[in-house]
Amino acid sequence: KGRLPPGPRPLPVVGNVLDFPRKHLGREFRGLSLQYGDVVYLRVLGQSVVILGSYEAACELMEKRSANYSDRPHSVMVNLTNLDWIFVFKNYGLEWRRYRRAFHNQFLPTMVVRYQAIQQEVTHNLLRNLLEAPERFSYHIKFSFAASILRITYGVNLTQGDTTHHKLAQELAHIAEDISTPGQHVVEAFPFMLHIPSWTPGGGFKKLAERWKKEIAAIRDQLYDSAKETMDKQGVHESIMTRLTAAGEDEEMAKNVTATIYAAGADTTNASVHAFILAMAKYPKVQERAQAELDAVVGPDRLPGLDDRAALPYTHALVKEVLRWHVVAPIGVPHRSVEDDEYKGYLIPAGSIVLVNQWALSRDETMYAEPEVFEPERFLRDDGRLNPEVRDPTTYVFGFGRRICPGKHFAEASLFMVCASILHTFIISPPVDEAGVPRKLDVNMGSNLAVSHPDRFDCRIVPRDARRRELIRGTAAS
Ligand code: HEM
């Protein structure tokens, strides 16, 4: 029917199964793109997989031809766990469109402005927690994203000791991430395994799916019901949940959309902030330059807000560099082609899994010199303003086309607020050994899950001076 895109030679029967990496899919697939070009074809146990390794290819197929590339691959685990109420997994069609529209309306740039006060309050709470117990920074960051999403979505205030809500959020994100990682469950490649009993070797996925199915529906219901209970007791706080209901959406839809926000939103932004902390500990000069800019524009007597972003090009560039340096979703979320298509003379067969290697885009040396180095300057012109000629990572790390991340504006606003506030008040540095010598921070940044988190690491976080300490303490009263 046509010439398939180039790729490693397949083995009989299993095809390219051995070429499908188990770890850091972004890096391994980039290796294939360097060898075969920006469209690579793999056949994995009968399934066509197409890897797009350049921005141009991604824009051409995912955006210009988005009608053909907006479906999601069929997933055995999503079916077994009934998880397609999380509309990230929904097939392209009317139901997905209804969910997407409801979601999208809540995260338009005009709505994101309305969430600023909550984001600010939660960020100030994070600063106070970092002051009190800096060694628990990782917990505080996770907690703060769970808190801001809970508040905006359900109108519920997450108090410091509330571990239940926090755990629910973590569990929801964990299961969703696991299921959306290609290659994670063997049954996806061998659907005949569906017919083997759960107690036989290899049948464990059935038990796991059964458990997750119950767990995840219970989490969704618990989040929703506890928000309703709180409203009964404390009165109604406007939230996405109340607005969806007021807009006439049925309860099922409101429940599903709100839990999706939680599942897709909290952990992704959290991974970016961990990467930010790591980058600051490793690159003190960058940190100092951002602090000098914040001192000049914001001054020592108040904390930065989103309104300051335009006047803080270096800090803004720093946040862009965080998104580029640590790509949270290295291979995005897989799309599926609906019909046969042709690109650069190659056939892309109907039903192919199509992956954009966002990690490869972030390592494009023609665009970013020394891509492994954390360097916000790469986004700036000589006059210190943002350089529109350098590709902005926000044009690809949030995906492409009709499935592009609908939480993009909210995530960017959260990231800016958190990074600027921490930079303005704290100094982040590597941990020291017994002799007081800074330890080298060699942290593995690429997990093999769909959402990539830097491995656990330690660092020191201390207030910049006594004035900043007071500034942070003062936020408790406001
Ligand atoms: C740093 C933060 C974030 C990153 C890097 C990120 C990245 C992504 C990516 C790569 C996709 C797949 C797009 C595609 O299929 O081409 C996606 C989808 C999605 N994201 Fe995000 N995201 C982030 C934050 C958020 C937040 C805060 C929310 C919610 C408030 C959110 C909600 C969603 C949803 C619901 C989808 C599925 C869209 C669909 O299938 O139609 N994300 N995100």
Automatic annotation (TrEMBL):
<keyword id="KW-0560">Oxidoreductase</keyword>
<protein>
    <submittedName>
        <fullName>Cytochrome P450</fullName>
    </submittedName>
</protein>
<keyword id="KW-0472">Membrane</keyword>
<dbReference type="GO" id="GO:0016020">
    <property type="term" value="C:membrane"/>
</dbReference>
<keyword id="KW-1133">Transmembrane helix</keyword>
<keyword id="KW-0503">Monooxygenase</keyword>
<keyword id="KW-0349">Heme</keyword>
<dbReference type="Pfam" id="PF00067">
    <property type="entry name" value="p450"/>
</dbReference>
<dbReference type="InterPro" id="IPR001128">
    <property type="entry name" value="Cyt_P450"/>
</dbReference>
<dbReference type="GO" id="GO:0020037">
    <property type="term" value="F:heme binding"/>
</dbReference>
<keyword id="KW-0732">Signal</keyword>
<comment type="pathway">
    <text>Secondary metabolite biosynthesis.</text>
</comment>
<dbReference type="InterPro" id="IPR036396">
    <property type="entry name" value="Cyt_P450_sf"/>
</dbReference>
<dbReference type="InterPro" id="IPR050364">
    <property type="entry name" value="Cytochrome_P450_fung"/>
</dbReference>
<keyword id="KW-0479">Metal-binding</keyword>
<dbReference type="GO" id="GO:0016705">
    <property type="term" value="F:oxidoreductase activity, acting on paired donors, with incorporation or reduction of molecular oxygen"/>
</dbReference>
<dbReference type="GO" id="GO:0005506">
    <property type="term" value="F:iron ion binding"/>
</dbReference>
<dbReference type="GO" id="GO:0004497">
    <property type="term" value="F:monooxygenase activity"/>
</dbReference>
<keyword id="KW-0812">Transmembrane</keyword>
<comment type="similarity">
    <text>Belongs to the cytochrome P450 family.</text>
</comment>
<dbReference type="InterPro" id="IPR002401">
    <property type="entry name" value="Cyt_P450_E_grp-I"/>
</dbReference>
<feature type="binding site" description="axial binding residue">
    <location>
        <position position="405"/>
    </location>
    <ligand>
        <name>heme</name>
    </ligand>
</feature>
<keyword id="KW-0408">Iron</keyword>
<dbReference type="InterPro" id="IPR017972">
    <property type="entry name" value="Cyt_P450_CS"/>
</dbReference>
